[in-house]
# Entry
Amino acid sequence: MSQDFTLRTEGLGKQWGAFVANSDINLSFTPGARHALIGPNGAGKTTFINLLTGALAPSSGKVFLGGQDITHMPQHQRVHSGMTRTFQLNTLFAGLTVLESVALAISERRGLQRVWWQTVAKRADVIDEAMALLATLKLSDQANSVTHSMAYGKQRLVEIALALATKPRILLLDEPAAGIPQAESKELFAVLAQLPREVTVLFIEHDMGLVFRFADRITVLVGGKVLTEGTPAEIAADPRVKEVYLGEAEHG
Ligand SMILES: Nc1ncnc2c1ncn2[C@@H]1O[C@H](COP(=O)(O)OP(=O)(O)OP(=O)(O)O)[C@@H](O)[C@H]1O
# Structure
């Protein structure tokens, strides 16, 4: 039986006091899409991702995953249901090697820490799965490197490996290329482009070159609302989008 992993929001909104960060957001993310969320600073992109993951509770509206209303589902259960985001490495497994970190994340998913007498027997399995995952992210050569000693671009890939260890169907990335040199961000997106199509990727990115190269669908948020949504060609040709970005360049 194939499960429906369409992620959808209905009238989603978030406000703090009188300040409206997200308002009436109705979006649907097709399984397998590479969907970019763009918009000027403060448009509400991160807020929206936080509403999807459950890090923030919405003020209004709903979130559905495969037809199921997950608006009030706890974060860890959403991960279990197939939707995950990356976390910063330095808050996770400081001092461990890449292989150890990924093996731990896989063990966590499999519930192995709670069944300690199986851990030894299953360890070879875990290592095999970890090495296969590292190969898809072109990290095999770094398996024994300590994560915090690696180039930032590689650290981001490890963060993505840790997220993928949960076997998500929907991967949420909040500015994966922020703070890394351009050459490394290109490499990062080249690796992301090769992820299996059964994983939907929803990402926030400010670098329009990367957005237009990688995304097959783009949503533009402005002032907490959806300005427009479409294919990269449609978005590139939309005069309202140009206006938003030209206005930003003039003020910035
Ligand atoms: N906890 C909070 N309390 C009050 N206001 C908040 C809170 N979190 C975010 N905001 C405000 O909500 C607005 C939207 O922020 P958000 O981080 O979602 O925008 P963004 O589009 O991701 O911006 P950027 O591209 O700069 O990262 C901002 O004005 C921000 O100051």
Notes: The chain has a mean pLDDT of 89. The chain has two domains: 1-82+168-252, 88-166.
